[in-house]
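Module 6 notes. Inverse folding takes a fixed backbone as the condition and produces residue identities as the prediction. Think of it as a translation problem where the source language is geometry and the target language is the twenty amino acids. Below is one complete input and output pair. Work through it position by position during the lab.
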């Protein structure tokens, strides 16, 4: 009799189970299904496992695998028997398998929903988190195949494997029988299992970036034999920055007797370097990069910064070259910054790494900077490095990463590192595209709760070389979702620097109340107007007059800070000419002294400079508005009010200064909104439970519907049934293909009724006359029916329906959609022109909490219409919020529900009425954000 193990695979090779993962130590491995072609790899792997590990796996001495064992462990049907391997360099370093079992513990097939699971990890790779990663992936595979529980038997002495299971966070049962620990656990993700998984993800990805930013040794590959060139320049930048580790120069064209280049040891190959190399900076033509990657991988290099161009930014051929580069690097467990990167910088005193094209090392500080574009990176570093101006005038740079094409390491990875980096207080990011908005939003929310995250976001069109998932959401929607995650969204590099300057060393404001004082009445009024425009609450400006001394500024600022009605202070200052006028240094000291005497509130300075008065007057006499070689004052970077010695002690709250009132106020308004978000994030609310929700019934209904097809909009009756299982009643609309049918429907529903045309071009268009309301009897109904058909055509073209009248109220629209990049999004707005023409819609990521639902209702510009605008009756917003929460639960509980539209939803003074609804369903994605950790696929 032929056993299941002898039959051919019942399913095709599941390529979507393949994944690259980051391990605990920051290295990478590839996880993939084991196939019949892996027999030799399995035997070689087993030979490198210690006798003790073999004993723990098989509960007896098991020195070698028999031919029958090899066949069993490499032949799977990918349903009832599955094996996965973790590989590095194409060779196995760990395996895991499950076998479906029945209630009697014997091999079984579906509908049995339990499986026995077992691991084996090569001793050299134990402690790297390989088993934990494999457990995440084998659990996801099992859930996909209908398995709900795992069982495992472990020897009591095998503490490492017991810890893998117990630390995973699943709901478990544990017993001890016959000298064996028996573990059983459900595979349904729990809050704890998701938290464990994400904590491991953060530690692993942060460690992988740390290996790139804090290397103990660096090799620059592609150093020219003569001065000039990228490689030689990078070598000089690293050396001149005072790099603390070992530095090596590599070029295969070096003469064999060459020992040094610019005082740095020289080698013809990375393989020739004695000792380990942590980071290789690659500056060779793209055609030579594969050979360099192979050399680095064979030598155990941990990461690469690839400056070379000629990849995805150059077209389809380059895109394939980039994919091959990533695959090759990951095969050796290496991570890549680039290609086409500008480089990385770490100013920490024990690192001092400038592996970038920037000729000078930025001043050390506590601001981290990420830029995808090399050109933008240059511009930002120039501003941040400019002495006496820009953010570095206050605090300087901690680390800088320019990811180039972002083939591997992305903004998500560096956020994982900066989240708990003790050397970073503020994160500034310039993102031309967001490869995984769902993950970025999740990481941004966590980071922003600990430190400010300021982002300039591209227009939504990915530049050449950036491989990103397409999103169907508008650019403005993605921006709104980022703001909800605590991201400080700004539009320009200038605003990025301005906000960073304020957040770097000033406390967050407790509210929007702003005091304004200074020696220029007009500048104070201008500042006041900008505060009002930005939604702040400014007090009347205090004019100190142009004769104000440094002591006057000190007294006024100290008084404003001590006033409990102020949350922040903006000082406006223009230089005065004459005896007794304070100089910059004297004024700076006065302001700093006053701020230090009453700490806890942010202080900003709008400082109009008239340095070089003669030159300015000369330029003003010209017929041109500005001299050709002079920058406009508004283009100057913000400065910092500094003490004369230019070296404040660590922790001092230095005062940022701006050359224009609008820039200072914009930065302050962003800080106010961020501080408010921080306060609200401390209590995000909860996702409420509703006793009347029938989750299992909805699941059965959806499963039955999906048997009809891959993805479609379900019928009106099915929509009502599905929504009803979540406590969302939809008012019945009865088709009326004839006047007689309309009259019968009206008698069944009860007068008054509404008659509506549901043809696509008339649906929800009351303005076109396709809706007749409050029809009190049959005579009015038949007259309305005749009018509609006379105006718009035959009934089969109009698709008329009759519906019972709902209580009068405000017409709104509720939508939920599963976006391939951003995930599940809930949207709300007023029906009609407000949402369709003006785009006045608010959005939240699903699942939505009760606080978020309340915020969603109040976020649209037309929200006053819901709350009694101009004497109108306020409507039942608590009922509306409950409806939003129920829709959120439906989509969150059932990923098969890919789109929901409720329109119109009439919100009356008491209750809500859903008058129209459509639902689209499709098979759920094989993996989602609750799935196992994976790196972007290539």
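Target side of the pair, the amino acids:
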């Amino acid at each position: 009799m032929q056993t299941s193990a002898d039959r051919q695979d019942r399913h095709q090779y599941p390529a979507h189970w393949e994944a690259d993962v980051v391990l605990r130590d920051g290295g990478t491995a590839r996880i993939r299904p084991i196939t019949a072609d892996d027999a030799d790899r399995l035997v070689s792997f087993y030979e490198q496992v210690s006798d003790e590990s073999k004993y723990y796996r098989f509960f007896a001495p098991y020195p070698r695998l028999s031919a029958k064992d090899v066949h069993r462990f490499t032949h799977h049907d990918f349903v009832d028997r599955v094996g996965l391997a973790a590989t590095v360099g194409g060779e196995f370093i760990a395996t895991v398998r499950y076998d479906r079992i029945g209630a009697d513990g014997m091999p079984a097939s579906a509908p049995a929903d339990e499986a026995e699971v077992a691991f084996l990890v090569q001793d050299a790779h134990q402690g790297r988190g390989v088993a934990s990663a494999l457990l995440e992936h084998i659990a996801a595979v099992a859930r996909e195949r209908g398995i709900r529980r795992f069982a495992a038997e472990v020897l009591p002495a095998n503490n490492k494997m017991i810890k893998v299971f117990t630390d995973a966070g699943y709901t478990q049962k544990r017993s001890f029988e016959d000298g064996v620990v028996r573990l059983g656990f459900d595979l349904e993700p729990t809050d704890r299992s998701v938290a464990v998984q994400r904590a491991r993800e953060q530690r692993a990805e942060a460690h992988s970036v740390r290996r790139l930013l804090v290397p103990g040794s660096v090799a620059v590959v592609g150093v020219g034999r003569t001065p000039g060139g990228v490689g030689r320049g990078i070598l000089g930048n690293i050396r001149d920055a005072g790099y603390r580790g070992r530095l090596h120069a590599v070029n295969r064209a070096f003469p064999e007797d060459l020992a040094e280049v610019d005082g740095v040891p020289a080698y013809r190959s990375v393989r020739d370097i004695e000792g380990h190399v942590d980071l290789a900076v690659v500056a060779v033509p793209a055609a030579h990069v594969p050979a360099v990657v192979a050399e680095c991988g064979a030598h155990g290099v941990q990461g690469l910064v690839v400056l070379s161009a000629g990849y995805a930014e150059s077209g389809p051929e380059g895109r394939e070259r980039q994919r091959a580069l990533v695959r090759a690097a990951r095969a050796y467990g290496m991570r890549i910054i680039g290609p086409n990167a500008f480089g990385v910088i770490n100013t920490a005193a024990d690192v001092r790494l400038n592996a970038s094209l920037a000729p000078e090392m930025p001043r050390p500080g506590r601001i981290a900077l990420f830029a995808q574009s090399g050109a933008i990176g240059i511009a930002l570093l120039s501003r941040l490095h400019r002495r006496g101006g820009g953010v570095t005038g206050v605090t300087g740079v901690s680390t800088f990463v320019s990811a180039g094409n972002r083939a591997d390491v992305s903004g998500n990875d560096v956020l994982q590192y900066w989240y708990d980096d003790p050397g970073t207080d503020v994160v500034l990011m310039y993102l031309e595209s967001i490869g995984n908005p769902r993950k970025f939003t999740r990481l941004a929310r966590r980071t922003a709760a600990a430190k400010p995250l300021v982002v300039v976001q591209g227009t939504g069109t990915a530049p050449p070389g950036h491989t990103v998932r397409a999103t169907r959401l508008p650019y403005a929607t993605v921006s709104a979702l980022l703001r909800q995650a605590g991201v400080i969204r700004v539009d320009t590099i200038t605003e990025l620097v301005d906000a960073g300057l304020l957040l770097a060393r000033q406390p967050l404001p407790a509210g929007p109340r702003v005091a304004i004082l200074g020696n220029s009445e007009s500048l104070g009024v201008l500042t006041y107007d900008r505060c009002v425009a930005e939604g702040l609450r400014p007090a009347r400006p205090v004019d100190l007059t142009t004769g104000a001394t440094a002591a006057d500024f000190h007294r006024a600022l100290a008084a404003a800070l001590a006033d409990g009605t102020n949350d922040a202070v903006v000082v406006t200052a223009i230089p005065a000419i004459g005896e007794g006028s304070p100089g910059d240094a004297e004024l700076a000291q006065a302001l700093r002294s006053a701020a230090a005497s009453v700490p806890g509130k942010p202080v900003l300075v709008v400082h109009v400079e008239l340095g070089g008065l003669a030159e300015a007057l000369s330029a003003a006499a010209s017929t041109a508005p500005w001299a050709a070689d002079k920058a406009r004052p508004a283009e100057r970077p913000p400065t910092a009010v500094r003490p004369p010695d230019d070296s404040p002690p660590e922790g001092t709250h230095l005062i940022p200064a701006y050359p224009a009132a609008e820039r200072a106020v914009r930065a302050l308004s962003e800080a106010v909104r961020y501080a408010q978000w921080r306060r609200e994030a401390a209590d995000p609310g909860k996702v409420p439970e509703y006793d009347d929700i029938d989750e299992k019934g909805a699941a059965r209904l959806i499963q039955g519907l999906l048997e009809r097809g891959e993805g479609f909009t379900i019928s009106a009756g099915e929509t009502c049934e599905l929504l009803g299982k979540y406590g969302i009643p939809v008012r019945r609309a009865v088709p009326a293909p004839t006047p007689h049918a309309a009259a019968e429907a009206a008698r069944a529903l009860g007068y008054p009724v509404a008659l509506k045309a549901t043809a696509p071009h008339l649906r929800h268009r009351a303005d076109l006359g396709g809706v007749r309301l409050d029809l009190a009897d049959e005579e009015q109904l038949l007259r309305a029916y005749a009018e509609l058909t006379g105006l718009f055509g035959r009934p089969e073209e109009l698709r008329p329906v009759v519906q019972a009248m709902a209580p009068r109220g405000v017409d709104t629209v509720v939508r939920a959609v599963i976006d391939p990049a951003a995930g599940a999004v809930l949207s709300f707005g007023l029906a009609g022109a407000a949402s369709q023409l003006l785009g006045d819609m608010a959005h939240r990521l699903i699942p939505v909490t009760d606080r978020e639902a309340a915020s969603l209702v109040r976020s649209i510009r037309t929200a006053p219409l819901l709350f009694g605008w101009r004497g109108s009756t306020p409507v039942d917003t608590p009922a509306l919020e409950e409806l939003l929460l129920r829709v959120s639960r439906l989509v969150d509980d059932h990923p098969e529900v890919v789109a929901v539209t409720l329109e119109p939803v009439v919100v009356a003074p008491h209750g809500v009425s859903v008058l129209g609804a459509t639902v689209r369903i499709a098979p759920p994605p094989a993996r989602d954000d609750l799935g196992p950790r994976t790196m972007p696929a290539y």
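Reference fact for the lab report: The longest helix spans residues 191-213.
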